[in-house]
Specification:
It contains 3 helices and 8 strands, in the order ββββββαββαα. By secondary structure, the chain is of the alpha+beta class. It has a 4-stranded antiparallel sheet with strand order 1-8-3-6. The chain has a 4-stranded antiparallel sheet with strand order 2-7-4-5, with no helix packed on it. The radius of gyration is 14 Å and the shape is globular. The termini are far apart.
Length: about 110
């Protein structure tokens, strides 16, 4: 994708920070990362995982930190490039919604335990 940029992060480096403005959508190309909310790990991400879409959908700050667990490479789409791509790609919209529903179900299950 020529409208995206590949960014590399060192092990332990914060990729996005909870509370910051959400300006991009990230896809892990290589490596692993953890999603942390208030210091607690709530999810693990690997190759092909994505994050950052919530802030693009609702214009609110990042809901969690994402931290590289090893040297990690991400493909990043800035807000305007993300919306341009989504507008042209029905399949991408379906996959985003499917993953968001999966995450919501997981959260509901965790809260009901």
């Amino acid at each position: 994708m020529k409208s995206s940029k590949v960014v590399t992060f060192k092990s332990g480096e914060v990729i996005v920070k909870e509370g910051d403005a959400g300006l991009g959508f990230y896809v892990l190309v290589d490596g692993r990362a953890s999603v942390r909310r208030r210091g607690k790990t709530v999810a693990k991400l690997g190759r092909g995982s994505f994050f950052g879409e919530m802030s693009l959908f609702d214009d609110r700050p990042r809901s969690a930190d994402v931290v590289a667990e090893e040297p990690t490479e991400c493909r990043v789409l800035l807000r305007w490039n993300f919306w341009s791509l989504v507008g042209k790609n029905k399949r991408m919209v379906q996959e985003l919604l499917k993953e968001m529903a999966r995450r919501l179900r997981a959260t509901d299950e965790a809260l009901s335990e």
